[in-house]
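Suppose a colleague, Dr. K., hands you the sequence of a protein chain of 232 amino acids and asks what its three-dimensional shape might be. Before reaching for any lab equipment, you can write down a predicted structure in token form. Begin with the sequence itself:
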Amino acid sequence: MNNGFKTTVKLLALAAAMSVATAASAQQTAGTWLATLGINKITPKVESGDVSAPALPGTKADIDSDTKPRLAFAYMYTDNISAELDLGMPYKHDLIGGGSIQGTGKLGTSEVLPPTAFIQYRFLPANAMFRPYVGLGITYAYFQKERGSGQLTAILNTGGPGATFKVDNKWAASYQIGGTVKINEQWFVDATVIKTKLKTKVHFSTGQDQDIRLDPLAVSVSIGYNFKGFNF
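The predicted structure, expressed as tokens, is then:
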């Protein structure tokens, strides 16, 4: 298990132990909306296939992490069951050489917009100071603005025109664990970890392609606000 994920789980468990007996006026009850805004870091856990022939055997890729604001809205259908939609700005990731071309530097960049919808279960009473939760969701990974570098051209199309690439958009399953800590009647702090099982394919302008598993891990901390709105 990822060390960051294990640390987050331990912190959530500690917070639960400290606050399980603490209660205040109702929050996160049925019919309540929860809006959160914070910072989210996405780190791909890459398993790269080889670029198809003709290419140097073992030509693989790795992808750097990126951090952006995260906006999410949740609706409490019951005191314990909620639905959440995660939104935000596109994340920009650097594609770097791996395998037999490790150390060659940046091969290109790509932006990805990963809106995600979750069904969540929130533990403990609705008026608890701390409420852990788990979620199961679906993500649509939309890739855009892919740009190849001179280094990519040197590797795949030496002496030819600039090499470019396109990443397939994909649906993927996401899993979530998190918790909220109450500040007052309306405001709270939210922390969440999301793991997405994402596999896609990269198509190069030179005719080659590459299978790549991204499986990103997202860790975020946000400030949230409870309010009553339209009921569903």
